[in-house]
Amino acid sequence: MYVLLYTDALIYLLLIAIAVFVVCAARSKPLRVPWLRVFARPVGMVTLVILLAYTAIGVLDSIHYRPTVTNEAGETRVSGEVVSVLDTIAAPLIEHTEYTYSAPFALHSYVQQVVTAADGSKAQVYPRLAHAGTSLNDSGLTRGEDIARRAARGAGWGLAVWLALCVPLIGLIAAHQRLSPATVARDIATDNTPLAWRAALIAMAVLAVVVGVTACLAGEYHVLGTDKVGQDVLYQAIKSTRTGLAIGTLTTLVMLPFALLLGTLAGYFRGWVDDVIQYLYTTLSSIPGVLLIAAAVLMMQVYMENHAEAFGSTTARADLRLLFLCLILGITSWTGLCRLLRAEVRKLSELDYVSAARGLGTSPMRILGRHMLPNVMHIVLIQVVLDFSALVLAEAVLSYIGVGVDPTMNSWGNMINAARLEMARDPIVWWRLGGAFVFMLVLVLAANLFADVVRDAFDPRLRGAEGGRAVKRRAPAEPAGGAR
Amino acid sequence: MTSNPPLLEVEALRTHLDTPAGVLRAVDAVSFAIAPGETLALLGESGCGKSMTALSLMGLTPKTNTRLLDGTVRLGGEDLLSLSEAAMRERRGARIGMVFQEPMSALNPVLTVGQQIGEALATHAGLRGRARRERGLALLEEVGMPDPAARWDAYPHELSGGLKQRVVIAIALAGEPDVLIADEPTTALDVTIQAQILALLGRLQRERGMALLLITHDLAVVNEVADRVAVMYAGHIVELAERETLFAAPRHPYTRKLFASLPGAAQRGRPLAAIPGTVPPLTSDLPACRFADRCEYAWAACRTSAPSWQTDAGARVRCHLYDSNYRGEPLPAAPAVADTTAEEAKGDAEPETLLEARDVAVHFPITQGVFKRTVGHVRAVDGISLDVKRGRTLALVGESGCGKTTLGRALARLIEPTAGTLRFGGDDLAALSGRRLRAARRHLQMIFQDPFSAMNPRMLVGEIIAEGLVAQKIGQNSADRRRIASELLADVGLPAAALDRYPHEFSGGQRQRICIARALALEPDLLICDEPTSALDVSVQAQVLNLLKRLQAERNLAYLFITHDMAVVSYLADDIAVMYLGEIVERGPAAELLSAPKHPYTQALLSAMPRVDNRHRGERIHLAGNLPSPANPPPGCRFHPRCAHVMDRCKRESPQARAFGTDHSARCHLY
Fold it and tell me: Are residues A361 and B412, on separate chains, in Cβ contact within 8 Å?
């Protein structure tokens, strides 16, 4: 049975908004040109591929349903538990729980246990893991050989999938540019295309191999080890992706209406409107954000505990808390963008074309919509992309101090919070922190690099007539600036 | 030519730059020489490579995208282009000084005048401490800075534009250069200040025996100061002559067209000679003669072989017309001196009054502190009354800061007037608001100075022109509005294909046409034109003025033409109102006011105007000082601190308007 959580709905809404934006951008030249410039840079393409991969995980984890289960009596009923498509794909990871900590690729537990042998003698040993290297006995291979074989098989699968993706992609490019697929393939190989397709394809190949290898190994080993109660850390890290993305994007969704509306109103109308809005955001930004968030989240927590019956499942409860966190983060973080927009709109409203529009009798709301908004969009875009990585990190920090997402929810912040004790024990457990760190680092680094490229592309000083790179083989590009 | 050996010799200088559109041949084989004590003017329109020539001489071409920089630049026998950057740095300032166009950006806003002059003195003369200050004060004295000791510790923002330009010149002089390059030194300044700075440059050059390379687009400025003139077009020099020779009879067809496209009283009532077409892009393969495509004398040879230098009665010109090998075509005579008898036949019965402004005032409050307490008012416009009549042009003339733009915007209700009435038709525009004001706006439209900022860069030209139609709900649907827009474009001389393009794809003149089309879409009765041609080149200005003239005749439009350019005024205006510090000091019919100005300020303004024609020049009146602040206008007559005829009475009471004839009046105690 399909289940729609609040954050799911918002994530779908966001995806639809992005799709509409892409269609609009493709049609309007002033928007298309800087975006083509983004994709002409290898960094832009590589980071886009990584971000898309994360998005794919997030989307798979945002389609929730209640599975039907069959009990011992043979009757089927709808489970009370809500799972996502990602959970179904990663079912082996969920089911392969161990007793307690185990290191990555280990065959034995990380913690000694007292085992009573058949003869009654007790011995302290590192017990064999239940779900790691189970086929070694049958095949007679050593662990290293088995890992190598599986990795090779995974890499093979990855490359096969990559090739299967490449062929239609090259076909599409060829159809778009009206060239033969062979020519396009040669151009990509020599990196002689308007957009940085070679970098994109290389990034996709690397990604496909990494995913293939991990997938093949994850069925038989705990690639990132297990945690205290024996759950697979790789699964936790992957599940956390959705939390991070949701915080990074939904907060923006909450913040944007505030910032856009208040910023443009303050900048355009000035006078008392400006005064009120300015005092509002000055006051809000002088209250420490963490305090406000902590107060709001703690209140929410109390409410949820008192009204436990209102929530159908723990997942729904955790989801509502995530949504609430996004809301409160959004409400505290619109001031920065609002301030930028106010200044920019103030500057724009001095320009002659705004005077001209007023002189033509255009109404103020139409001026805001037609003249102001399109001309501040680049600022909004740059700020949103920059904020995304900051928000992902903020989630980790807030969860670490205990006012973040629900403790039952997988998130990088919760993983790091738990690692506090693990780093303090001896011998230390490093893989939970390490896993969260690697996943978060790749996402935030990709987002930051992407933001850099976007900012460069929208820099008005670099405003050229055409997006994309000059291609050497073809006829010289049209003169910039068109007719003079 | 001067008999002295040349000080600065430039030979076959080429500067090519890498741009996204290809290699830009900004300077292409430019050669000239300047003797000590001589002024050479490098004249050309924007984009012809004159500024890049100056930067190349200084070795200041952009490092990252300079593709090629060759030729020779010999300064006193030393080839500057072969010097290392370190050696060049020693020559810069010490042997060649440079004065830039924009004094506001040439000075560092966080350093005092003294620090900036001191820095130049320390670098070039090695002066320290007391000696440095004394030398710096002497320099300020030399450039005519009033009260140098008080200005030494002033920051640039405390000085007016003219004083800042004096500081820039003082800095350029600190290294005692042999050659001074002045790149459009007066373009950003007002006419009266321009006259001061040009006089200063001339005096300094005489006293120091410097060579002066003056880069300008303004023929009149050239006439004021230059000894010789080099006319640049599309990256190279097309004509090089003594000033008198050039101004008596320009040789090159391009130079002739430049002279012919200058507006003035002599051209009244007939279209100006505009140059058809545009400058060929310097990134493309240029035709044999770069002007051939726009030249009315061009024949086959001009398109196949590049013209070589020819000498004709002392002038050197790069044109086939003067080449004996090609001669055979009838050589047209130099343009005849314009006859001033042509006067328009506009003497019909008294036209109806469209806009009647009475006692309009715009005061901006000056606020202080957290609670925005009002501590005073900037009286930008202070009680002005004027009438604009159907089908006629009223020119509003004044220097920057006199409030003429504020008045124009207040008349269009883009700024709220503090007081006064604006009677337009049956309505008082000043009392309307909201929906009724928006509806009333269609009768009165505005054209702005800068066509680049007057259009939303993210809207198509079709949308821009249709904006007013949408706002006023004219036309049934978008197809209908599109039809109206394409008709308007045709009316201003642009193809209908322009509808689906963005403003940045057009040149300045074309953009101004689009702005005019947008204003005309609502079929207004009155157009307020705020310096519509001052951002444009002379030849493009002629096109736009011709268009405005034609539209006025066709549609019986009234113009309120706001400008500081007296040449445009004398060409276009029927009536003139002269504004000084928020008040109108003199008004009257154009012919009467221009020939017999009454107010001392009008007289000074007219005499400070640089001219191309030296015959009608009377005695020069140099206005001292600067425009006082409108926040604190002088008591009595506002002009008295700068007036040559000041009397005791002027300091006490504000003069009333005195009438001279039917429409001519001035506010001055002299009469």
Answer: no
